[in-house]
Specification:
Length: 889
């Protein structure tokens, strides 16, 4: 039921309650049993053990487990143990990340008040919030957290901060006496108060109409728990890659088995050999390389003010196509700022953003000294005297106590050199007529330094103007005529069209207490807005260059949202659309999907609307990022491919539902994180390129040798050492490769793009063939029929050195490693040197020789080995040079 359409009497009658007596304790207990406790309920979650075991269900992990089992059956226990160690390491990393993320509901529960003031049995009682039932009469005062969804039955200057629930950037003035018709958004339901919102001013009384999971907060909790996090693009690609790898391994097994039987006829021996080669084909170091690459990316992003909560999300950032951004506090300062002032026949611009009292006054782009303008100074002084907010400075900067609108007025006055404390010291406060939604005005009465009593008023410009008799202009007061009124109303319309919140000001000397807010002298208008962050404009430009769409989603009014979007150059009225939440609800899912790509601004939206927007974009094939700070953002943040929470202004709920937290609440940090995500994905592909091409070379060495009837050039332990150690460490060094130039000038890659494209697959195969041939040539030179151990030692060493030279090819598919900077990645240099030193140790240390079946080599041997091993690098450098020449011509 929409309670905002019901009158106060209808609500009280429906719940059979009374404003004075409330419910009886007996009735309340009965309703508590029927409705349940007033708290958020958590759906059953999987336990830590089940969560840990779930880490072993990824397809590539299952492949590795199978490889470990087969290795054990073949008696290769060292191989089996090494593979299982990698599997367990990856599972522990994944479990640690997922376990941290299961806290969203606990954060929601923190938002609810522990106690509430309730009238029961005709007495005011302070009761636990969980015991509130529908029909309870709740009292609200400044600072209270609303304990349930209430239909207000009394309001005295009541204002409630609803930003976390609705996205509204300023507190909402409530009016219990109003009723509404039709369907309206939460932010417009001025006769309602919602669970978890905060009373910022005044008093109120309400009847509880919804409790627990039935409240608006409860609906959000349900949505947060209902959203299942999908796998990331990288996880999906690795899953596809693992399946492809299994098929390749099976084919290799069959071919080697069949060919071996035809050549030698030994069925059992050929079966074991075929399985051993298939196990060798699996890049055991790949999961570790990917995990550690992502982990290093997490550290790098933390330095860029982005905390990653789920490891795979690092890569997901790199393929973001759409950023759905909350307006308040994300694109804007979340600090109301006076930007324009109108005194009669004078327009004044103010610079400076937020609560920092730094900025200047300008008239027609020329600097203006406010102290020399009597009208302007009187207007600013009035804004200080008709004001209950306070401006102060702490370690975090300038802050406001009280209404943000009134805070903006204090800041504007301070920019002109007016101190609130000094002005208040000159005037003696006498009385105040608080703001209410019927009058739409506030008046304060002071005794000035000359002993005169003066009333200072601010309020809605059109209403205040009708109560003015005179107008003040440059030290003179004269009668207000119809032409003056027309000019003032036109100024008000201009301000409103710029999405400014407009306040009118007036004053009068009083001799009695009657009709204080009549026959006033009009002073002027002040227009304010929550301005965009300075750095957001450049971030938006970089998004457009990178092919990333930006969509603004806000709880504010549509006209305000469009104005901000235009200022950020992200909205074109000729081709872009803006929708309110109610307009969005009027579309069916099919209709909405047809237009979703055109909509750049959403205003006055509900949590369900935000969730629907994200789902519609994902249905169109977009990889979606959703930023947010309020409770209302949490379901959509969790549904998005990459959910981004604000670290400073964000609620715990949104942080726990997110994949990434911005520690500086800076939209520009999102763009930096996307750039980092693209770099990380590129480096993961480089690692895969290196590992698979190396595995191809190992398979070809064994396969070709077996086909031509030669003894196997590599033993099982040598293959594992090459796969796991000598390949793994340099592959990890690729993870710290610097960002390639022009990476943010490329469009986002498709989430359907395979991790190994056809051109890359062909290139890897050719490179594997080259390294395999180099190994076989060296093996043949040393004639395995005469000295098998030495021939294997040379082949083993050539293969490892070929791969170590080849890693420099993998730094770029088309740019020379010398142009990149041969020594620009010292981690790579040190890893290669380390592998070379370990290989020397394997060859010359007596303790290691029998383990790896090696013999010492002389200088001539090393000359031949180096001459052959460098060929893969030389060939690729010639290929890159030839390709570059072809492109130029």
């Amino acid at each position: 039921m929409n309670w905002y359409i019901k009158t106060i009497d209808e609500c009280l009658s429906h719940w059979q309650t009374n404003k004075v007596t409330g419910l009886s304790s007996t009735e309340a207990l009965k309703r508590l049993k029927e409705a349940g406790s007033n708290q958020l309920k958590e759906k059953k979650r999987i336990g830590p053990l089940a969560m840990f075991l779930r880490q072993f269900t990824d397809f590539i992990i299952l492949v590795l487990i199978g490889a470990a089992i087969i290795s054990g059956i073949l008696g290769e226990w060292i191989d089996s143990l090494a593979i299982l160690t990698i599997v367990v390491f990856n599972s522990i990393m994944g479990f640690a990340q997922e376990f941290k993320a299961e806290k969203a509901l606990a954060a929601l529960k923190k938002l609810t008040a522990p106690t509430a003031k309730v009238i029961r049995d005709s007495q005011l009682q302070v009761l636990p919030t969980v015991s509130i039932v529908p029909g309870d009469i709740i009292l609200l005062e400044t600072g209270d957290i609303v304990p349930a969804d209430l239909r207000l039955i009394d309001s005295q200057r009541l204002s409630i901060e609803e930003a976390s629930l609705t996205g509204e950037s300023v507190p909402v003035s409530k009016d219990a006496g109003r009723c509404f018709e039709g369907v309206i958004s939460l932010g417009d339901q001025k006769n309602m108060a919602f669970m978890s919102t905060i009373v910022t001013a005044g008093k109120g009384i309400g009847v509880a109409v919804k409790t627990g999971m039935q409240t608006e907060l409860g609906k959000i909790a349900d949505m947060v728990q209902s959203v299942e996090k999908e796998s990331t693009p990288l996880q999906r690609r690795l899953e596809q890659f693992a399946k492809w790898l299994v098929y390749v391994c099976l084919i290799i097994c069959v071919i080697i088995f069949v060919v071996g039987i035809l050549k030698q006829g030994k069925i059992i021996e050929m079966f074991l050999t075929a399985v051993a080669v298939a196990v060798a084909a699996i890049p055991e170091g790949l999961p570790a390389a990917v995990t550690i690459t992502l982990a290093l990316g997490v550290q790098q992003m933390a330095r860029r003010h982005a905390l990653i909560r789920r490891l795979p999300s690092v890569e997901t950032l790199g393929c973001v196509m759409v950023i759905c951004s909350d307006k308040t506090g994300t694109l804007t300062q979340n600090e109301m700022t006076v930007t324009r002032i109108f005194t009669f026949n004078k327009w004044v611009e103010l610079t400076g953003v937020g609560y920092e009292p730094e900025g200047g006054f300008y008239q027609e782009a020329s600097p203006l000294a406010p102290q020399q303008d009597q009208s302007l100074m009187l207007l600013l002084k009035t804004s200080l005297l008709c004001n209950n907010a306070k401006l102060y400075k702490n370690e975090e900067g300038w802050r406001i106590i009280g209404d943000p609108t009134e805070g903006a007025l204090i800041v504007a006055a301070k920019k002109a050199g007016l101190s609130q404390e000094e002005v208040l010291n000159e005037y003696e406060p006498l009385a105040e007529i608080p703001f209410d939604s019927e009058r739409k005005m506030m008046t304060t009465i002071y005794k000035d330094p000359n002993g005169k009593r003066i009333a200072f008023t601010k309020g809605a410009p059109d209403i205040l103007l009708n109560l003015c008799k005179d107008i003040y202009s440059q030290g003179e007061t004269r009668r207000l005529n119809e032409e003056d009124k027309t000019t003032i109303l036109q100024a008000n319309e201009i301000f409103a069209s710029q999405a400014l919140r407009v306040i009118g000001f007036g004053y009068r000397e009083i001799n009695d207490e009657k009709d204080i807010e009549k026959e006033m002298t009009f002073l002027g208008l002040m227009g304010m807005i929550d301005p965009p962050r300075e750095e957001v404009k450049s971030a938006m430009i970089e998004c457009r260059t990178a092919g990333i769409k930006t969509v603004m989603i806000t709880g504010d009014h549509k006209i305000t949202a469009i104005a901000i979007a235009k200022e950020l150059n992200t909205f074109d009225e000729t081709k872009d659309m803006a929708l309110s939440g109610i307009e969005l609800d009027a579309f069916s899912d099919l209709e909405f999907e047809k237009i979703v790509e055109k909509v750049k601004v959403y205003a006055r939206v509900s949590p369900a609307n935000k969730l629907r927007i994200v789902k519609a974009l994902k249905a169109k094939g977009y990889t979606v990022a959703m930023t947010g700070d309020g409770v209302n953002d949490a379901p959509a943040v969790k549904e998005a491919d990459i959910g981004i929470a604000m670290g400073i202004t964000g609620t715990d709920v949104t942080k726990e539902a997110s994949d990434m937290i911005l520690t500086d609440d800076n939209f520009a940090s999102i763009v930096a994180a996307i750039k980092e995500g693209r770099r990380i994905y590129a480096n993961i592909k480089k690692a895969i390129h290196f590992l698979i091409s190396c595995n191809i070379s190992e398979i070809l060495v064994i396969f070709v040798a077996m086909i031509i009837g030669m003894p196997l050039p590599l033993l099982a332990l040598q293959i594992l050492w090459t796969n796991l150690v000598t390949d793994g460490l340099p592959a990890l060094a690729l993870s710290v490769e610097k960002t390639e130039s022009g990476i943010m000038k490329q469009p986002p890659r498709s989430p359907k793009e395979k991790i190994i494209t056809k051109p890359l697959g062909i290139l890897m195969f050719i490179q594997g063939v080259v390294m395999g041939l180099c190994t076989l040539i060296a093996y043949g030179i040393y004639n395995p029929y005469q000295d098998l151990v030495k021939a294997r030692t040379v082949a083993f060493t050539v293969l490892i050195l070929c791969q170590k030279f080849h890693i420099f090819n993998c730094r770029s598919e088309n740019v020379s490693c010398f142009k990149i900077g041969f020594f620009s990645n010292w981690w790579l240099i040190w890893s290669v040197l380390f592998i070379i030193l370990t290989q020397v140790a394997i060859i010359y240390v007596p303790y290691l020789q029998p383990i790896f079946r090696t013999v010492p080599l002389n200088l001539t041997d090393w000359g031949i080995i180096l001459g052959i091993s460098i060929l893969p690098l030389v060939i690729m450098e010639i290929y890159k040079l030839f390709t570059k020449y072809q492109i130029r011509n």
